[in-house]
């Protein structure tokens, strides 16, 4: 059983004061936001690890509120977006023993019952293509298609700035 | 404004020339075009953006770099388009700042951002915050520098008041204090409006808030990758929230309770 990062050398990682992370994957042109819980899980698998060690590592950040179920939930979040690869076996209550090659699927309810002050792990992703689509609409109102001036006989000057403005 | 009805304005490194051929149109430009910035005599040379209001064929025409962009029966009918043209020209020419589509006010010395798309109700929240003593920065764009500080861009507010059409409101009409220095971000509230929404807002991580800013910037990451650093500094000092709200007055009351200022 092993958990390891999927993209070892293509990520730029930014740490934020609240423990959350912002990752940039230039190769896959995707950015990721990890909340503090997912960020701690991400840190915990900076080298190949297993669920037991990962849970212990996360407990160093958040204390005993971190359970194996929560760590497994964090792995699933990271795995959904291919940030980690995992062959995690189902944790037995109170142990780090494992029994399958599939990641455990703790129900949300099961994870919630284990939570104290630790937030559920959350990873959000956006591709650069999606970001560009957002940028198009993040303007002050509808972009207008300029019309040629009927009353002006001379050819409008189209310098580089005009082209940037989309006015030529 | 000189005798020919023309003046220049410098805004965030861009040079604008505004010209009008009649007194009403001159007054409209003077009142609504980047109103917090000083007017200057036209300089020699070609401006980055030349905006004029022409009167022809019984209508007023807004002309930008010799292209017609709008027409109306009276000059005030051109104001919303004028403001949008100025916004777009400013945003496209930013060099040391990066924009986020967000309502922006300062409260207790720190900036409160309301990122959101058009029709998200940014102006309503800003106006309500201003009514409760916040300093007006902008109802449309937060301009963020490399240290994460937000600079005022106090354009006239464009408000809907329940109507599909916007109309301009000057900060002075709200008796608003207008920001004149950059300030750090204290709070980010990404709120979806719905008139039947119940107030439902939860904290989000600073990483998620950074993602929210990237979803609401007019710049693309491909062309402006440095903005991640700008926004990272901005969110680093902020408490961040997301959720849904109903009317602006109720929402602002809850926001002020939450920020405890």
Low-confidence stretches of chain B: none
- Principal-axes shape call of chain A: globular
Uncertain residue segments of chain A: 97-103, 142-168
Alpha plus pi helix count of chain B: 6
Distance between the termini of chain A: 61 Å
Helix and strand succession of chain B? EEHEEEHEEHEEEEEEEHHEH
CATH architecture call of the largest domain in chain B: Alpha-Beta Complex
Strand line-up in the sheet with most strands of chain A: 2-3-4-6
Question: What is the percentage of strand-forming residues of chain A?
Answer: 15-25%
* First-last Cα distance of chain B: 42 Å
Main β sheet profile of chain A: 4 strands, antiparallel
What is the count of distinct domains of chain B? 2
Mean pLDDT across the residues of chain B is 93
Proportion of helical residues of chain A: 25-40%
Total discrete domains of chain A: 1
Structural class of chain A: alpha+beta
Sketch the topology of chain A as an H/E string, one letter per element.
EEEEHHHEHEHH
